[in-house]
Structures are given as structure tokens and as C-alpha cells.
Here is the input.
Amino acid sequence: MLCTNPVQSVEKTFQLTRADKDLLSKPEYDVQAWCMLLNDKVTFRMQWPQYADLHVNGMPVRTINRPGSQLLGLNGRDDGPIIKTYTKDGINKICLTGCDPRIFCIGVRIVKRRTVQQILNMIPKESDGERFEEALARVIRCVNGGTATDNADSDSDLEVVADFFGVNLRCPSAVDFTIPFF
Here is the structure.
């Protein structure tokens, strides 16, 4: 690794209960590691630090499909690796090292896979709700914190990224773990 930036590292534990593992025994559920750049100009974008090195319970996990030195552009996205095969009942350990001066936040969450048809079925038909143009303007206002024309030329593509996952209200920390990466 040829990096002139400071090396940052974090090591944290997270717990998967027997109930979590029972849920994860179903094929549509997985455990995903995620990472986001704090204060990213592209909201809700998953992104790993430069030269990211992730380990779960001592096992190396590939985080990116780009050269470690390459930064993401405005339209770039990283994926969150599925780490279910590296987890166990009880206490698990996640370690992330990166050579990047920026500040990131990492986490672990239980995710449910959906088919494209399931996702399409969740979207209300235009005849059942607001018109597409109105909905798009509302989403842009929510994401940008202003009018649809504010910052309109900041990106050549119009893209909305959303994330949905269930949280057990009895123990929300058992589902979504947020670990600051300093």
C-alpha cells in the first residue's frame, strides 16, 4: 500500500442473538457491513475509505471493486459486502483499517433481500397517489433541504438512493450497529 495519508483503524464488537441467527437461517436474510463518508456531498451513499481492509472475526472481507487509491466520483457507489458466513452466535468482531484522512462511519445490519417484482409492487401507481413530477420534486426537497431547483446542476444524473430495513424495537442495537471510524 503506497499511501501518504494517515492510517486509521477501528475494532469493535457486535452481538448476534440466537433470535438473530434464527432469522438469518432464512435464505432471504443476510448480514451486511456498510460504510459511509461523513459529510459526503452525495447523501446516503455507501463508500469505503481508500485502501480499505475489513476483517470480520479475523477473516478478510473484500469491500470494493476499484483500485484502493481511486476516490469515488459524484456518480460512484460502493457496495456493502455480505458477511453472514463470517458471523456466529454471540459476540462478533469487525475491524476496518483505511489509509484516508476523511472521517467514515461503519456499521453492521441485518438486511432482507427482495426481488425486483417485490420492490415494484411496493411502489404506488401514479393513479393511486401523487403525480410522478410532484413526488420527484418532494423527494428532491427532502434530500436537498430546499426547492427542486436548488443545486439542480450539481450532478448530471438525477438519482435518489433510499434504504429500508426493519428494526427490532425491543433491542434496536441488535439490528443496526453504528461505529464511528476515527
User: Anything to note?
Assistant: The chain has three helices and seven strands. Residues 150-182 have pLDDT under 50 and may be disordered.
